[in-house]
Design a protein that fits this description.
Layout lengths: L4 H7 L13 E6 L1 H8 L3 H10 L2 E8 L2 H13 L3 E5 L5 H9 L1 H15 L4 E10 L8 H18 L2 E7 L2 H11 L5 E3 L6 H10 L2 E4 L9 H9 L5 E3 L21 H12 L3 H16 L1
Parallel strand pairs: 1-2, 2-3, 3-4, 4-5, 5-6, 6-7, 7-8
Length: 286
């Protein structure tokens, strides 16, 4: 049944600010540009609202060339922002199909230039996505992923991975290429067994608002298996708004909701988990 105008209007209303965290943390993966486009929230306002609840830093992700340029620019302008730049796994085959391999090579070269900027802390989000890109895009995705790994290692920047329905190939390619010193699985989507593999490799695992969804018990099992020393928290805003606000606009100020849910799964006091997350984020993005 189609939603009523009233229901649609309610979904457009941002959730209220949660109780502030006593121990400040960072949002390890967000899209301030998309929040500005969709919700009309200026960057300064988004950062102010986040800081008011103890989210004192964000990692702004740029996942195509225009957004990567924007991420680097915003990071240079705001002390509370670190930049991350890459071609999203679905962007690489789009460029190759529309403009050819030479255009993809040029785009990757520009990503390397942007990643070298001092306020850009990471190369990402890169990786593999077999959900939105079919078999015809696999080879290009894998080539792009390998090149992003090379860039991250050459610059000693963190690598931020998007992994959707491609766990085995992501882990295989990281092993074949040699993972960067700091590797982050954004919006971790594996099971408990994969969490144990990532923990053994020293990969950071970042959990988003979907860990609060009723259907996400396998994800909570993965979180339970992940060591606190490798945990990060993120919004992926404007996506993945945590319960009870699922369907409403997401933003960095909602990090406390997800962190509290994570603490409950881990059986840890909120402040203890926050201290782990803060230290881990500093180690990952520095």
């Amino acid at each position: 049944m189609p939603k009523s105008a009233k229901a649609r209007s309610q979904e457009a209303v941002p959730p209220p600010l949660p109780e502030p965290l006593a121990v400040p943390v960072a949002d390890s993966h967000t899209h301030l540009d998309m929040q500005q486009e969709r919700q009309g929230t200026p960057v300064a306002e988004a950062l102010e609202r986040a800081a008011a609840v103890g989210v004192t830093r964000v990692v702004q992700i740029g996942c195509d060339l225009p957004r990567a340029r924007w991420a680097a620019k915003i990071a240079a302008e705001h002390e509370a922002v670190w930049g991350a730049v890459a071609l999203h796994p679905n962007e690489a085959p789009r460029i190759a199909a529309a403009e050819g391999d030479a255009a993809l090579d040029a785009a990757l070269a520009e990503i390397a230039e942007l990643a070298a900027q001092p306020r850009v802390a990471a190369v990402g989000e890169t990786g593999l996505d077999y959900f939105r890109t079919g078999p015809e895009g696999v080879a290009v995705q894998q080539r792009s992923f390998r090149e992003h790994i090379r860039i991250a290692k050459e610059l000693d920047k963190a690598l931020v991975i998007h992994d959707r329905e491609a766990h085995a190939d992501v882990l295989r390619i990281l092993t074949e290429e040699g993972a960067p010193r700091r590797t982050v699985f954004h919006c971790f989507s594996g099971d408990a067994a994969m969490a144990e593999v990532c923990a053994a490799a020293g990969y950071f695992m970042s959990f988003a608002g979907n860990v609060t969804f009723a259907s996400a018990q396998p994800l909570r099992d993965a979180l339970a298996a992940a060591p606190p020393e490798l945990l990060l928290v993120e919004t992926d805003a404007p996506f993945l708004t945590p319960a009870p606000w699922r369907g409403r606009p997401n933003a960095p100020y909602l990090i406390p909701v997800t962190l509290r849910a994570m603490a409950e799964v881990k059986g840890l006091p909120e402040d203890e988990l926050a201290r782990h997350v803060a230290a881990n984020t500093a180690r990952a993005f520095g």
